[in-house]
Amino acid sequence: MKALIAAGGKGSRLRPLTYAQNKHTIPLANRPLIIQAVEKIVEAGIDDIAISVNEGETELQKLVGDGSTWNVTITYLEQKGGALGVADVIRNATSFLGEEDFVFYLGDNVLCTDIGPFIEEFYEKKLNCLLALTKVQEPERFGVPVIENDRVVRVEEKPENPPSDYAVVGLYVYDKHMVEAVKHLELSERGEYEISDAHTWLLENGFEVGFREITGWWKDTGKPEDLLEGNQLLLKEMESSLNGELRDSSRIQGQVVLEEGAVLEGNTFVRGPVVIGKNVRIKDAYIGPFTSIGDDVVVEGAEVEHSIVMSGTEILVSQRIVDSILGHNMKLNPYKNTLPRGHKLIVGDNSHIEI
Prior knowledge:
20% of the residues lie in helices and 32% in strands. By secondary structure, it is α/β, with parallel strands linked by helices.
């Protein structure tokens, strides 16, 4: 069995974060989304993996490498001419897939469950396609299955009036007939090759389409609030690990990961679950639950809670920061430090600031 990971797209719902970086490199609990996707595949015992990337992409290749970190082989497939929907990822990968069975994984999804049982059920029931399902609050954002007599009879893509509160999530298991299915697709009204249309083609042509409900949690990280919730879910699963240094009256409480070279000093208090990266310096600050602090970050005097702070950022304000995502190498400085006093902003398109 092979694996295909979708890691292209524009990430438009995550702008401005994705103006400067591929959304699949965004870290949750200090680990990039794409790394978490690869490790899920590797844990299932698959060692031949392709990652679908945007045309001209280089960032992901540098981050993930050739697979030698996990003793697997990783191939990169560029979507020439731009992304045209989820099913187009498979259309573009037909040479790689050949006639092999394969797992298809959307790289911006986060799963708490193992993939192995899905593969086992695919073979045990002799299916041509296995869909992973879960209940969601906004099914209109996803492909929604229509289930009759415990069988999927069709899948509706982002329906205005969802037939159920189930969604097809970003994990699929297919045999070679999926490659045939995507060849028969036409562009939808949205100008994309819809994965739901491929599933419908399989059903209409007599192929066995099964489903398995995810028992743990699943998160699509398409919006900023989804990233924060995904970060929270992953932090809950951490085990404490203290490899950094506590100085002065600094103290910690709850589940905390403190990486090598990190220093807490002054009157600092960290209440987990929190992960603090390598070579971080935190002084006279409070770091509250569900916060991830990337490598080489400096925090002085601030309170940070339920937030994602990426590497190289400096927070030097005595303010309370909550429900926030701060990108790489960002600087937050006190407005009183320079004249004339006032809030000085250099802000990109579609930013969101509360002062």
